[in-house]
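User: Run a structure prediction on this.
Assistant: Running it now.
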Amino acid sequence: MVRATFTNTRLFLRALTILVLFIQQGLHWLLGWLWLVVTLSGRKRRQAWFGRCVLNLFRRLGATFIKVGQIMSTRPDLLPEHITHALEHLQDDVGPFPFAHVVRTIEEDLHRPLREIFAEFSPVPLASASVAQVHKARLPDGRVVAVKVRRPNLVELCTFDLAVMRTVAHWLGKLPPLVPVQPESAVEEFGRAVFAQLDFCIEARNNQRFRENFRDEKEVVFPEVLTELSSERILCMSFIEGTKILGVGHTRSDPKRIARLGMHALMKMIFEDGFVHADLHPGNIFITTDDRVALLDLGLVGELDPPHRAALARFFAAWAQRDGGTMAKQMYSLSTSHADDQTTYEAFRVSVIEFVARYWGHRLADVQVGKVLIDMLGILRRHRIRMTPAFTIVNIAIAVTEGIGKQLDPDLDLMAEAIPFFMSHPSLSAPASDG
């Protein structure tokens, strides 16, 4: 149960802080924009300046805006590239909160003194982010665990900040150029994603589902959650010793094997399980001391129902055949904001066919699929076609995982890894439905 710890005075001060920072950053952007105009700088430099100002604003506004900004950076189908690219640089490590809050949270939720629950508990966090910080501890039976504790008052803060965002989005949504983007609906979507990461009971369930899905995949592991020591504000997990994936050079692991193992895991999530880790940045992927891949931080996921998995299988099969028409059809079938507008669809279809034509004559192995998918999302945005969040999450996960894989193995061929998964999908053994 959320405790009402934010007083009216603190909410007023928070609203005042948001207003002051908006005005400050707005004036900063305006002065910079005028200078770029006077110096005859091009449109791209002005756009990049706007993106940097948005980035700095979100950084200064704190936890809620950082999380929303990170989610916004994964939606190139909604926002222009200069904004999503800038927001990709939002870092989620912030200063730790006092250890006294950690103790209070654990003792309130688990109803026992900290010293009775843990034999040892490090007061210095291993990591401190906008939502929580993680401490290393040891249980009385000797097991080493990682204890993730939510920041104090965070639910109230996020609730208030998102209410402010919804108000701003409501008025922005009345501007004709922004009507197709549906800002208020987008904020609601971002808000649901943020709150999914605030409730650690959700992350615990996600964790259990991933462990079940990968029970036969011995080389990909997930932490084990100790449910009896977890709650909405606490997540107690087995501690995984390892090295972040981009530090593979400091291990005995074969980078090429690790790259293919990561790509195999993602393809299984997409085409077999329909349950996808939506935050696969390098800090959440570890190489364990026994040469396996461990995936952490499972609060944000994307779920694909069977029709979505079928459409994605047909989409990838069409890309392998350079069939732009079918690719357009599959993407359009997954969109959420279109009516049966034949004119819009035809213009979109032509754009996709023209885009795919640029790759005619190129070997599949020579094409970076992640870049193709990101460019496709840009085409959707230009035609004001809004996709389901799951479709976008999958595309971003593929792009990020391929990018990490290419750093480990420049010869990594995503399509070679993906073909066995999407070509074996049942939807490709029968004609696609026109529905």
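DSSP finds 16 helices and eleven strands in the chain.
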